[in-house]
TrEMBL record, chains A, B:
<comment type="function">
    <text>Catalyzes the transfer of a two-carbon ketol group from a ketose donor to an aldose acceptor, via a covalent intermediate with the cofactor thiamine pyrophosphate.</text>
</comment>
<dbReference type="InterPro" id="IPR055152">
    <property type="entry name" value="Transketolase-like_C_2"/>
</dbReference>
<dbReference type="InterPro" id="IPR005474">
    <property type="entry name" value="Transketolase_N"/>
</dbReference>
<dbReference type="Pfam" id="PF02779">
    <property type="entry name" value="Transket_pyr"/>
</dbReference>
<protein>
    <recommendedName>
        <fullName>Transketolase</fullName>
        <ecNumber>2.2.1.1</ecNumber>
    </recommendedName>
</protein>
<dbReference type="InterPro" id="IPR020826">
    <property type="entry name" value="Transketolase_BS"/>
</dbReference>
<dbReference type="InterPro" id="IPR005478">
    <property type="entry name" value="Transketolase_bac-like"/>
</dbReference>
<keyword id="KW-0479">Metal-binding</keyword>
<feature type="domain" description="Transketolase-like pyrimidine-binding">
    <location>
        <begin position="351"/>
        <end position="523"/>
    </location>
</feature>
<keyword id="KW-0460">Magnesium</keyword>
<dbReference type="InterPro" id="IPR005475">
    <property type="entry name" value="Transketolase-like_Pyr-bd"/>
</dbReference>
<dbReference type="InterPro" id="IPR029061">
    <property type="entry name" value="THDP-binding"/>
</dbReference>
<keyword id="KW-0786">Thiamine pyrophosphate</keyword>
<comment type="similarity">
    <text>Belongs to the transketolase family.</text>
</comment>
<keyword id="KW-0106">Calcium</keyword>
<keyword id="KW-0808">Transferase</keyword>
<dbReference type="InterPro" id="IPR009014">
    <property type="entry name" value="Transketo_C/PFOR_II"/>
</dbReference>
Length: 660, 660
């Protein structure tokens, strides 16, 4: 392919990485220097990509799970000729607005598959990508979908617990096109990994159903041979590549000193001399650059052949494939939900919102059966997000569209990120709301990178009853609402559930939490022409006469607000009820819209079986709040609502206190 | 020991568990029925405990990691004669105020070692208990500290990622007195575990440095033999006990149906007949009860011998041991911090609060060198929580008082729970604030059960700079403040740091987060007689004249508020600055105190490099907020503060806009 010594190609990565970190006086040179040989072999011999078309659907995916080694990725993008990644960008490493931030940001820089940095996320996201590939290949055929997912992972990625969830899933699902290259350099920030770890990773991965072996990660021939073997395996593969962190730096290589800071002028010079690289910063010899550019266009032919194959697919199937990877919803979805809402008006559904969510899902899954990809972390029968028509996905049934993720909330949410990023699916995953705590790092990255995933989070308050405080969310609504770009919906009845599902599925630039009840609720809405949930809140019940008070509530507490409103009306106190399915969406409305919804009644009361955080923005500092001020307790739900004073009577009294 | 057939003893557990779940119409009978033989062997032959003295320091610990099987534990407490656990309590299973909540709550029911239910927590907490045992034994000798930690874990515990972090630590530390009995029943909520899992747990644990074997978990002789072997091992041991979930239930045993709901009258009757148990609810044959009571007092002699041994320890050492396990701080602590603060007034320390925390730690560690137990998730040099005098803990250096937890934030925080619960130490653990997301389930349980642990969370805002949005917390202060009983301190200078450390260490009924900066800050305080941080907030700078505005700020933004105050004073606008090291503690003050601190100036501005959630309670809906409205970005810190408009100029303008 090229006559250039591949070690010189690897050294180009090393040189650029050293220079960029040195210029920024900040960053991580050690990984790019140690893993340069691995990257060179992968990108010049194996990775199927076309640098001119970084989003080509059938490309191989490369995930730099060890995101701190971002200069490896930026160097590769520049060397292989990514149009945006100029030398100037490398010189702007870690500066405001550059395409080269401290950690790779896929929403910011083209050619990057996912956002990494928080350890363990990349490898777990990659499992979702490989899962999506397997599913989509089974549906559209290997002529259209046939690619590998490669991961470069560090010690830290494998120490993080989420990696166990991820590798257990990948092994169980036999995701043989997932290949993890483990940069086994034996060094972490605190020093040799031996001060904190003695896990035999090869044995560990084998115990999870993987193929695994150890090689010399500085030996390009060994790397070639190992990847070749991995591609033939019927299991996912771990290749533990023994490398030297900061390879080439004469004094600091192999030590923690080269992990997370610039080498310093002297060591940098010595390293370059040692490696035989020009001392000129950011310089790459012409022949080396040419060889890299050739590697970058190596996949162009494969892409063109793929373009031809998809042309042969038939226009309907092709349009379907292209729509799916664009995350565009089918027209049938809106129709199905409209009909579903109409049906609810005719036959009200007075059930738990997890159950009305199930009913909405039946309508949705009928409209988009192959792309609506649900799953649960072992609470399928409680989360109610499995459509009757959906069959379980397994290694042998790749067309199944319900995923049993096991008791792995974090792994599930990370995998959903990968499924979304891969394209082709609208993933949703379910557990109890309280267990969002287990998945927060993956949920935060979804919000940061704008992944359109849906979290079906049932048992959303003390209303779950007897399981007690370990299972009762009280702070979780607040904690989730606080995440930028996270949408949290807590619908109050079956109509709102359908509306929130519609908003969630049409939100392809960020994640959505649906907080749903365990306990039954009445259907409160009597019209369904519009979707008022899109504004976060709306007046559900108007006051009879000039309103003296407004009761704001979400989810299961809207029923309480409506009951209180009725009692107040009977006492001659006209009161409004505002349903607030999404508090943060209400607060994000334009000033006039928000003010109109909130209104100006002298008394404002908020009712939510959760902590007060956030509600002051609606009801004011002096507003009355009826909710939780502590953890919950174990008892039947009705006893708990009474015990914690979240009742219509409490709401009535709060208003009376203020009105009189 | 007893002539009663041990299978009848196990059946007593089964009968009580079935009856209690049946009466509550809620709960999990499957695990207690399947694991009854394991529990019988452990409690009658091995577990060193005295039911009359459930808090005896040298008792063996038993952790029911599979907390949903709580009736196993409650049955055992009743059968062994725990004074509080009457038959009536079993009949009140899962009812408000009973000692028998849905999941075990150690803060509520005596004889329970830790709160479990969220899967993976128990096994990980147990690692901390075993670690504390090893450390304390090395310090006080095996005559005083010599006990085992036993765990009963389920499939779910081992699927959760945190279990990997925990077992990797336990294997590395060679915690050979930790014995995990895995209730390998092959069933989870969704059905056979084989639908979601194919990990070979024995191989997995071996890869982490454990001894591990499989046995028949319904064979009491096999269980006895395996625990006997485990006690002799020089490694922690996993005993995978193959059991039948719902053992004894003729139709439902071995299926998911018996996991999480009552058997139903017919199946219950059939199960009792099958097992040869009386059909009378909650009945235990006299001889069986007597045998169980004997098991409960079996350890009384051992305890008395231990009491004698501690009597021989010497009064000073004995007092020290008893003070330590009571979580009482030494008098030297207050003195040391007082002297430290005096020193700061004489020689101001204008450094990052992570560095002034390091200075405070030097003073603290000198006062309590053996009980101040710090550690970091591989960011020791960045978190600055290692005292110079502290040496690293390892299997060979058990007197080391700094723990390299590895890149395992969740495992670290769960282990700290266990360390605290075990007694003898004031544990603190460190990472970047953003990575509290990884540890939230363990932090929440710490808050729920009132564990006095300290989280040293550095790099607490966009002020960390170049690492970018994946590493920059913006919502984390809000998300942590929302957790009931969690204390979050964000000190603004070296004096506040010392004060917050003092409050944190003296808080032994709940956890404390210390949010600390990466970037340098000036020492702002000029007096240190009292500790105003105890009220959450206080006036740091008084207005010159009648105040027209108040600037509220925390941590690194107090410096900005002080600069703005000066500029406003120059423009003739008298302004106060209120430092708010703990927003939620301010809000928890008595009404009058809170009102006095907040004051009544017409203009209120809050400055915090984080999201607004929570601040409306101080500044009102119409207050000005200068902070973050999105994720951060990668750039030097100064550029970011300017880019996101968190500057003294912005604060001045916000006030001017309102004043004019």
């Amino acid at each position: 392919m090229t006559q250039v010594d591949p070690t010189r190609m690897a050294n180009a990565i090393r040189g650029l990485s050293m220079d960029a970190v040195e210029k920024a006086k900040s960053g991580h040179p050690g990984l790019p220097m140690g893993a340069a040989d691995i990257a060179t072999v992968l990108f010049t011999q194996f990775l199927k990509f076309d640098t001119q078309a970084p989003a080509w659907p059938d490309r191989d995916r490369f995930v730099l799970s060890a995101g701190h080694g971002s200069m490896l990725l930026y160097s590769l993008l520049f060397l292989t000729g990514n149009p945006d990644m100029t030398l100037d960008q490398l010189k702007q490493f870690r500066q405001l607005g550059s395409l080269t931030p401290g950690h790779p940001e896929n929403f910011h820089t083209k050619g990057i598959e996912t956002t990494t940095g928080p350890l363990g996320q990349g490898i777990s996201t990659a499992v979702g990508m490989a899962l999506a590939e397997k599913m989509l290949a089974a549906e559209f055929g290997k002529k259209i979908v046939d690619h590998h997912t490669y991961v470069l992972a560090s010690d830290g990625d494998l120490m993080e617990g989420v990696s166990q969830e991820a590798i257990a899933m990948a092994g169980h699902w036999k995701l043989n096109k997932l290949i993890v290259l483990y940069d086994d350099n034996g060094i972490s920030i605190d020093g040799p990994t031996s001060i904190a770890d003695s896990v035999d990773q090869v044995k560990r991965f084998k115990s999870a159903g993987w193929a695994a072996e150890k090689i010399d990660g500085q030996d390009q021939a060994a790397i070639t041979a190992a990847i070749t073997r991995a591609k033939k395996s019927n299991k996912p593969t771990l290749i533990a590549c023994r490398t030297t962190i900061g390879y080439g730096a004469p004094h600091k290589a192999g030590t923690a000193k080269v992990h997370g800071e610039a080498l310093g002028a002297d060591e940098l010079k010595a390293a370059k001399e040692n490696l035989g690289i020009s001392l000129e910063p950011f310089s790459v010899p012409d022949d080396v650059l040419q060889a890299w550019r050739a590697a970058g266009s190596r996949g162009a032919a494969a892409r063109q052949e793929w373009e031809a194959r998809i042309g042969e697919l038939g226009s309907r199937k092709r349009a379907e494939f292209e729509r799916r990877v664009r995350h565009e919803r089918p027209a049938s979805l809106a129709k199905a939900l409209k009909a579903h809402k109409k049906g609810l008006l005719e036959n009200p559904l007075n059930v738990a919102t997890r159950k009305s969510s199930e009913a909405a899902i039946e309508a949705i899954a009928a409209a988009m059966p192959m792309e609506f990809l649900a799953g649960s972390a072992d609470l399928t029968g409680s989360n109610n997000n499995k459509a009757k028509s959906a069959t379980a996905f397994s290694a042998k049934t790749p067309k199944g569209r319900f995923v049993h993720y096991g008791i792995r909330e974090h792994g599930m949410c990370a995998a959903m990120n990968g499924i979304f990023l891969h394209g082709g699916f609208a993933p949703n995953g379910a557990t109890f709301l309280v267990f969002t705590d287990y998945a927060r790092p993956a949920m935060r990255i979804a919000a940061l990178m704008g992944a359109g995933v849906v979290y079906v989070m049932t048992h959303d308050s003390i209303g779950l009853g007897e399981d007690g405080p370990t299972h009762q969310p009280v702070e979780h609504l607040a904690a989730l609402r606080a995440i930028p770009n996270m949408r949290v919906f807590r619908p109050c009845d079956s109509i709102e559930v359908a509306e929130c599902w519609e908003l969630a599925l049409n939100r392809v630039d960020g994640p959505t939490v649906l907080a749903l009840t365990r306990q039954n609720l009445p259907q409160l809405r009597s019209s369904a022409n519009e979707n008022p949930c899109q504004h976060g809140a709306y007046e559900l019940v108007a006051a009879q006469g000039e309103a003296k008070a407004t009761l704001f509530a979400s989810g299961s507490e809207v029923e309480i607000a409506v009951a209180a409103q009725k009692q107040l009306a009977e006492r001659g106190i006209p009161t409004r009820v505002v349903s607030v399915p999404s508090l943060e969406l209400l607060l994000a409305q334009p000033e006039a819209k928000r003010a109109a919804i909130i209104g100006k009644t002298p008394v404002k009361v908020a009712i939510e079986a959760a902590v007060r955080w956030g509600w002051d923005a609606v009801i004011g500092q002096d507003g009355e709040f009826i909710g939780m001020h502590s953890f919950g307790a174990s008892a039947p739900a009705k006893d708990l609502y009474k015990h914690f004073g979240i009742t219509a009577e409490a709401a009535v009294n709060a208003v009376l206190k203020r009105v009189s």
